[in-house]
Structure formats: C-alpha cells, structure tokens
Design goal:
The structure is a single chain. The strands form 3 sheets. An 8-stranded mixed beta sheet has the order 5-2-1-6-7-8-11-12, with helices on both faces. It has a two-stranded antiparallel sheet with strand order 3-4. A two-stranded antiparallel sheet has the order 9-10. The longest helix is centred in the middle third of the chain and has 36 residues. It is an alpha/beta fold and 617 residues long. 39% of the residues are buried. It is globular and about 95 Å long.
C-alpha cells in the first residue's frame, strides 16, 4: 500500500475504510475495448487491489511502430511488436489482453494485474472462470465465494452478455455493463442485493434529539449546569443554541401550562418569542438568532425515512435463522449482506426498546459557542452515541447467541464477525440506509426484445415478462418531458442501441458491415423494425413523443435513429469510451466502498448532443 499522501484527495471522499475496501477488491474486465480500458484506468489510479482482463484470442492489436502504422482507437492497446513466451518457451505476439494489462499496470505500482485469453466469449464457462479468479484473489479470506470481485463487461455482444449476466446474478456478483457504439453509449448496473450504509446525502437535518419528552441524561446534565442569569454578556452570547432551545422549551411549557410540544403555528411563534425574550440584545447575540432559526428542531422529531422503514418492515418478517442461513434456493449469502441484515434486525429491536428512537448520530453542527462549552456539548452527544452503540452490540450478541444455540456447530462457526467499528458506522448513518436491487439485465433484455424473431426460443418463452408498471410510469414521464431537441432525448438512443443488439443476435454481426447502398438500406429497415417492436414492448407506442420520433413515417426524418446507428457500424471512438469509462468507474467505486448511491440502473450517453439520462429499465 502506498503512503497516505498518495491517495490524500480521494481519502477525503471515501475515507480510510473506503480506500481499504478498494485495495482489497478485484476487478474482472471482459473485453479490452476503449470503454473497458478507460474504466480500468480510473480504478487503477486510485488503487484498486488487482484487476484481471479476459479477452478473445483473435482480438486485434494494431502495430503503430511500423513504417505504415495501423489505425487504432484504444490508447491502451497499440504497438504489438513486443513478444511474449508461451508455456513451451516459444515467442509469440502479445494478445490484446496482455498489451492492455501491461500498459495499465504502468499507471500504479501498487496494483496487481493479470490477463488471459479465451477462444470465444460465446463458449466461455463464466461461472468456472469467475470462481477461479475469485479463489486466486481471496486466498487469504475464505469467508465467501465471490466476496471481493466486481465484473465489468465492455462492449460484449448480446449472447455472451446474457450468459454472463445470468451467472453474475445467480452468484450475487456485481456487474457493470459498459457499451460504446459510435457516438452513443451506456452504462448499466446489475446489483442483486447492494446495501448502502454511507449514502452521504447532500444535506441532512442534524440529529439533536431535542423534540423528546425527556432529554437524554448527559445532555440534560449539561443544560442544568448552565445558569444564564449568572453569566456575563460575553458568556451569555456564546451559549450554544442547543442549550438555549432546551431551556426555552421548559419556559414555554411553564408559561402556557402545557406538557406537549408546540403543534400549531401560533404555539410555534410563541415559542420563538420566548427564545427572543431570553436574550439580552437579540440583534447582537448570534447564538439566539441561531436558536430562533433552528427552533423547529425543538418541536419536530426526525422521522425514520420510508426507505429505512421499508427495510425494517421486510426484516421483521424473518426469524433469526433467516439472517444467517442460505437462501431458499440454496445460494450462500454474501458476508456483507448477512452483516447488513443482522444490523437491520438489531435496529428493529433497538427501536422497540427505545420508544421508536434509533441510535443517535453523535456529532453536532457548528454553532456560535465558546470553545469550552462546545466541547462539553460534543462530549454529551458522544457519550449518548457510545451508549447506543453498546446497546446495539448487546442486541447483536444476543441474536448471534440465539442462532448458535439453535444451529449446528458448522453453521455457528461460519457466522461473520460484526466489529464495534461496523456497528458505530451503522449507527451514525441509521437515517441514510438504503438497499439497492436492480432488475437483472437478462430479464430486461428479453422482456424488451420478446416476440421479435420468427421462431421464439425457449429462453424467450421462459423469460417473457410484461414491463413493470412502475417502470412503465417512469418511462411515460420521460416522454412527457423530453430533451429540448426532442430527437436527442437519451431514451430514444437506448432503444436504437437495443435494436442493434437484436440485429447482432440475429446475424452475429452489427448492422452496417456491408457498405453497399442496398445492404445499408436493408440493415436500416431491419433495425427500424426492431425499434418499433421494442417501443411496443415498453408500452410507449401510443405516445405522441414516440410518434414524432422513432415511429415517424412519411417524412425526411423517417428512420433517422436507425440510419445513424447503421452508419456507426459499432465504431469505437475513444473519446466516447473515456466518458463512459469515467461514469462506470465512479459507479464501481460506489459499489466497492458501499458509499454514495449508485445509479439505478441505466445511464445513456448521447455524444451527438452531449447529453445523458438515467433510466430504470
């Protein structure tokens, strides 16, 4: 591991725990295209643990140092004059995977890189391959099967991509699909069960616990120590607003003879007037101004968000054994998922024992105050936070003990350890917990392209699904609020891109391979047919938006998107790959660190107009 200084800036983003998770992860890249190598570049530089590139034997590497240098579009795959020894000591040209691996490893000496070539992506056994890579990367950690592996699929054709998608979904491996196609591109996340503890929202209401019938002891003791009447003017102007709010609430209750918190607008205004009356010179005492501005904190409880409540409702249906045992279909749970479920289960018990109040965050925002009393206020909240963490630890210990007593020794020995650090982090972020589960790519693809071939295969019959009504509603909203240049709305290019995938599935090559005019017209016609079918499968065929764009007929603009996609013939433009690689690598970091919220679930980039959109498909 390099020194802290090397990664100083990114440590400020995701902290030591995030950097540690990054350095312990293995990235598996299938297909060393421009988009794929750009994604890897942006993960190698911040210090991912290792990467492994898988490519086909026949993938071409241009020779750029000859008298007539070959054209190339991938900045990490060039100059194939170097030779490598095979197992028999014979010299041979390096494969594309080896060349890309070599150039990427030069970017960061901390990162280990490896590569291999396969005969064909269509014939690859992805489960065995991923298991082999996972075993190599997790030799020192046998807790789980694919614990630290993230898969990136770059520009894979539909058939192998569907196979890889199914394998990753069944094994609960996070999959990031990157596709660069001319000036159009996409990034698709496939996450089976991705817990997010540190979602890091842009803004957040502080968790001060002032709107309680009884203030917690360490804070109440500090409030009781402060006597405003005995303070001089300087000290009086530097009492933290938190203490002022508590004292003002006591005065308000005494004045109004009420035991409940202010509810009506009149009562809330009366409470603010009490705060002002406590000041000696309201215009010159910033702490009292802050107290008035934040008065709502004293009578408004911080409610548990609906996302967290949904997690609590789901976990309440489980028994203790459900938290640790394999799933109903025999799949082993990932360690991170087991830990998250146990923590959520413990939280539900904590809420029952503490009048519906979750563990406190333990930190306070900046406010006008003297140093001494501000430190005492911090200590009061830290004391309460430590007590809550200890209570959570006790609950978790009881859950684990209950499972041990009812399970075999083998199962009991496999229980993952939840450290005090894990619990403290969970408690600090209890209001921001999320669980992201995307639709599997193979299900999405087959639902959008069903009934599009003359003979339906068994896979299409099995996977036939109607588009989810919630997803359909989201897409309907997109059609009502398109991009200002309507034809450049990213959703349209997603549909056109999917039509090209369907063309490849039918012909094993992308449209536009034959440059003769009649062949190009034939390809456009077929791609347009697929576009119409996809629009129908999405349930958007009756919208004015689609009738004016993809389904337009009898105009010069007819088949415009199909013509553009055929013109590209799956061209690789490194600039577009660079944009997509930046987006994809950012999402990979979110997945690895468990911080920030990954996109849900498809990012479409339109390089023609320089616009992008995120859609749930």
């Amino acid at each position: 591991m390099a020194t802290k200084d090397k990664y100083d800036r990114q440590l400020r983003l995701w902290g030591p725990s995030g950097q540690r998770a990054l350095s312990q992860s293995t990235i598996v890249l299938f297909n060393a295209t421009a988009a794929g190598t750009e994604t890897l570049k942006n993960l190698v530089l911040p210090g991912v643990g290792s990467f492994h590139i898988v490519d086909e034997n026949n993938a071409l590497v241009p020779n750029t140092s000859s008298k007539k240098p070959e054209v190339f579009s991938n900045f990490f795959v060039f100059n194939n004059e170097e030779e490598a020894e095979n197992g028999n000591g014979e010299k041979k040209k390096k494969t594309r995977a080896e060349v890309a691996c070599q150039h990427l490893m030069e970017l960061n000496p901390d990162v280990k890189g490896s590569s291999q070539s396969v005969v064909s992506f269509d014939e690859t056994d992805y489960q065995s391959l991923l298991l082999s890579i996972s075993n190599d990367s997790n030799k020192e950690d046998t807790e789980e099967r694919f614990g630290k592996v993230i898969v990136i699929a770059a520009d894979l054709p539909p058939k192998p991509l569907l196979s890889l998608s199914t394998t990753c979904w069944d094994a609960d491996i996070s999959l990031v699909i990157v596709k660069s196609y001319g000036l159009i591109g996409s990034v698709r996340l496939q996450l089976n069960h991705h817990p997010i503890i540190q979602s890091r929202p842009d803004s957040e209401v502080p968790d001060l616990r002032l709107a309680e019938d009884k203030i917690f002891p360490s804070l109440q003791n500090l409030v009781d120590e402060v006597s405003l009447e005995k303070l001089d003017d300087k000290e009086h102007a530097h009492i933290p607003s938190v203490i002022l709010l508590i004292k003002a609430m006591k005065l308000w209750k005494e004045k109004t003879q009420k035991t409940s918190l202010p509810k009506t607008l009149e009562e809330k205004n009366e409470y603010r007037e009490v705060i002002k009356s406590m000041s000696r010179d309201f215009q010159d005492e910033l702490n009292f101004e802050e107290a008035c501005k934040d008065a709502y904190l004293a009578y408004t409880k911080k409610e548990i968000p609906f996302e967290v409540q949904a997690l609590l409702d789901d976990i309440s249906k489980n028994n203790v054994s459900d938290l640790f045992d394999d799933t109903s279909d025999g799949k082993k749970k990932r360690v991170d998922n087991v830990k998250f479920d146990v923590l959520i289960f413990a939280l539900s018990k904590f809420l029952k024992e503490n009048n519906g109040q979750p563990p406190i965050h333990g930190s306070i925002p900046d406010m006008t105050a003297s140093t001494d009393i501000f430190i005492k206020l911090q200590e009061a909240y830290k004391t309460k936070a430590s007590e809550d963490v200890q209570s959570m630890q006790t609950i978790i210990d009881s859950i684990v003990e209950q499972y041990r007593s009812s399970s075999s020794d083998a199962k009991a020995d496999s229980i993952p350890k939840i450290s005090n650090e894990d619990i403290a982090l969970f408690c600090k972020n209890v209001f921001n917990l999320q669980l992201l589960k995307t639709r599997p790519f193979h299900e999405e693809y087959l639902s959008q392209t069903r009934f599009m071939s003359s003979s339906k295969d068994d896979a299409n019959e099995v996977m036939e699904t109607n588009i989810d009504e919630e997803i359909k509603d989201d897409l309907m909203m997109v059609t009502m609020d398109p991009y200002e240049q309507i034809e450049h709305t990213p959703l349209l290019w997603h549909i056109a891109l999917r039509a090209c995938d369907k063309f490849h599935e039918a012909h094993n090559i992308y449209p536009g391979s034959d440059g003769r005019e009649l062949s190009l017209l034939s390809d456009v016609k077929e791609v347009q047919t697929y576009i119409k079918d996809i629009v129908g499968n999405l349930g958007l065929e009756d919208t004015d938006f689609m009738k004016e764009t993809l389904l337009l007929s009898g105009s010069e603009e007819e088949n415009k998107h199909a013509k553009e996609m055929v013109r590209y013939f799956n061209a690789e433009v490194h600039n577009v790959g660079s944009v997509l690689g930046g987006v994809a690598s950012q999402e990979v970091v979110k997945i690895i660190t468990g911080q920030y919220v990954p996109l849900n679930d498809t990012y479409i980039y339109n390089g023609i107009a320089g616009v992008a959109g995120v859609y749930r498909l």
